[in-house]
Amino acid sequence: MTTIAVIGLGAMGLGIAQVYAAAGFTVLATDAVQDARDSAIERLRTNLLPRVEARKMPLAELEALLSRITIVDRVAAMAAADLAIEAVIEKIDTKRALFTDLEAVVGPDAVLATNTSSLSVAAMAEGLAHPERLLGLHFFNPAPVMKLVELVAHPLTSTDALGHARRLTEAAGKTVIDCPDRPGFIVNRCARPFYGEALALLEEGRSATDIDAAMLAAGYRLGPFALIDLVGADINLAATESLHAAMNGNPRYYIHSALRDQVTSGNLGRKTGKGFIHPETPGPAPADAAAIALRIEAMIANEAGWLLAEGGTTETGIDTALKLGLNFPRGPFEILAAYGRDRLRDELHRLAEIAPAGLADRYRPAPILEFA
Ligand SMILES: NC(=O)c1ccc[n+]([C@@H]2O[C@H](COP(=O)([O-])OP(=O)(O)OC[C@H]3O[C@@H](n4cnc5c(N)ncnc54)[C@H](O)[C@@H]3O)[C@@H](O)[C@H]2O)c1
């Protein structure tokens, strides 16, 4: 019998516990806060009851799923774990302390995993007795719905640990993509130019509705501004700032004042009732929709090209991650194949020439776009 331990029963941890329990695994789960522990099973039931009412899930299946989850009051009660996944607050000291506690109780073959979005897995492994069994399992929100999991290896992670985590997570129905321990991993990093280049266009005087309409015409389900409005401009700004800092201020992650100003204005998107576009919707595509899409997609492909050059991932892995993680209609390397390398490189050169002072390097082509 395989046992999965989940630590942290907030939005992500509860969803991750559901994912493995739904696949038939025994789940041990805990949280530092008693109320989070006491309410966890009822919160899951409340989340799942609409599925039962819609006849998408038999009540017996819901009860069986819940019966496979045992809430325990401390990490010391998780000795049986084959795989322990933490989804506690995004603070490296908290996560390190937790893994030190876990190491002392789990068996020698157990794998430890972090669901961090933005911290270095290698840094988290420092000081552990067995850093080779720590890896990242980056689920997306909501975990039961999103198919993608980024499997993050740091330089010391063992192939055994990676294989074990992959098998268990694939058995739980997820598509697991290998991912380097680089800031933003694959999805959060390659998503930046979708927003960033749209913000550059906005600052040049284009309207948010025109830009979104252009991307809808190119096959995207949501435009960049509708997506910022959905998640929140404050969340988008925090993610951009985090990546900008982690990548040493590289201008590809330049923080546009249009985004900062939006956050300052308090119009954060759906959650405040008004955003860049929300509650409006984009109108018809502008006459130059194809040029707008080319510009944004050239930057998506270029970002993916730089990530690929850093190692630890593949073209197919990156394409799959962006299609599953962001609902993109095509991945960056499919974009590259569709336009051709020369067209994308020419576009980047054009953008470098018109870039504001200090930002030309933002458009430097990745090795894959350079002349063969
Ligand atoms: N929310 C997202 O969209 C998302 C997506 C992917 C990854 N993540 C990552 O998942 C992790 C959790 O995010 P979340 O949104 O679920 O947060 P959350 O605030 O909803 O939940 C965190 C839970 O961890 C508990 N906790 C804090 N310290 C603890 C400790 N030392 N031991 C046990 N429990 C502890 C808290 O009581 C809380 O219930 C973070 O690392 C975050 O970066 C979040």
Distance between the termini: 52 Å
The CATH topology of the largest domain turns out to be N-(1-d-carboxylethyl)-l-norvaline Dehydrogenase, domain 2
Largest sheet data = 8 strands, mixed
Helix and strand composition category: alpha/beta
What fraction strand?
5-15%
Distinct ligands, ions and cofactors found in the model: nicotinamide-adenine-dinucleotide
Order of helices and strands: EHEHHEEHEHEEHEHHHHHHHHHH
Enumerate how many helices there are, as a single number: 16
Major sheet strand order: 3-2-1-4-5-6-7-8
CATH C-level class of the largest domain is Mainly Alpha
GO biological process, one term: fatty acid beta-oxidation
Organism: Paracoccus caeni
Domain 3-hydroxyacyl-CoA dehydrogenase NAD binding: 3-180
Domain 3-hydroxyacyl-CoA dehydrogenase C-terminal: 184-277, 294-370
Question: Brief description of this entry?
Answer:
This protein has 372 residues and is of the alpha/beta class. It has helices spanning 11-22, 34-53, 59-67, 92-105, 121-125, 159-171, 187-190, 192-203, 208-217, 224-231, 233-246, 257-265, 289-309, 315-326, 332-339, 341-354, and strands at residues 3-7, 26-30, 69-71, 83-86, 111-114, 134-139, 148-153, 175-180.
Structure keywords:
10% strand; oxidoreductase; alpha/beta; 16 helices; 8 strands; globular; N-(1-d-carboxylethyl)-l-norvaline Dehydrogenase, domain 2; binds nicotinamide-adenine-dinucleotide; 372 residues; Rossmann fold
